[in-house]
């Protein structure tokens, strides 16, 4: 008789623990309802680049400090005609974080080419904001 009560009590306790666990664990269908709020960039990241000129073409390559290693960087270079000279506008695009990744700043490489005069000045923008640069 005592073993019967023991097993009945153990069964009730096990049902309560398993039921409590099943009700407290989030389900995958609940994750679709969570709205992700994109984090705006707090500052413009630093850009280090090198410019190699050969036969009328500038090959610009370097690194940009991205918020994490999962970030994809897109770079494009265009020429802008000023009143007295031609300048190079290097535009770097870093999209907002869209996934789960270790938030450890990482240097991500980029490269772009453009035809321009040899001594054309280079202006670098990251997501439309003028960036601090280190030319080497």
Mean pLDDT: 82
Report the C-alpha radius of gyration, rounded: 28 Å
**Roughly what percent helix?**
10-25%
By secondary-structure content and strand pairing, the structural class works out as alpha/beta
Cα-to-Cα separation, first versus last residue: 87 Å
Largest sheet: 4 strands, mixed
The beta-strand count equals 8
| Count, helices | 2
The best one-word shape is rod-shaped
In terms of DSSP E residues, the strand content is 35-45%
**How do the SSEs run, as a string of H and E?**
HHEEEEEEEE
List unreliable stretches of 5+ residues: none
Give structural notes:
A hairpin with a 2-residue loop joins strand 6 (122-126) and strand 7 (129-130). The chain is rod-shaped and about 100 Å long. The mean pLDDT is 82. The protein has helices at 2-24, 28-31, and strands spanning 47-54, 57-66, 74-81, 86-93, 106-115, 122-126, 129-130, 133-135. The protein starts with a helix and ends with a strand. Helix content is 20%, strand content 40%.
């Amino acid at each position: 008789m005592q073993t019967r009560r023991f097993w009945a009590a153990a069964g009730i306790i096990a049902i309560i623990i398993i039921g409590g666990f099943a009700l407290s664990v989030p389900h995958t269908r609940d994750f679709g309802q969570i709205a992700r709020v994109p984090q705006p960039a707090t500052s413009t990241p630093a850009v280090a680049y090198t410019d190699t000129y050969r036969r009328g073409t500038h090959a610009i390559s370097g690194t940009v400090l991205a918020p994490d290693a999962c970030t994809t960087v897109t770079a494009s270079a265009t020429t802008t005609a000023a009143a007295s000279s031609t300048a190079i506008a290097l535009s770097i695009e870093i999209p907002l974080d869209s996934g789960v990744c270790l938030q450890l700043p990482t240097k991500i490489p980029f490269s772009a080419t453009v035809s321009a005069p040899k001594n054309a000045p280079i202006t670098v923008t990251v997501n439309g904001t003028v960036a601090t640069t280190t030319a080497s």
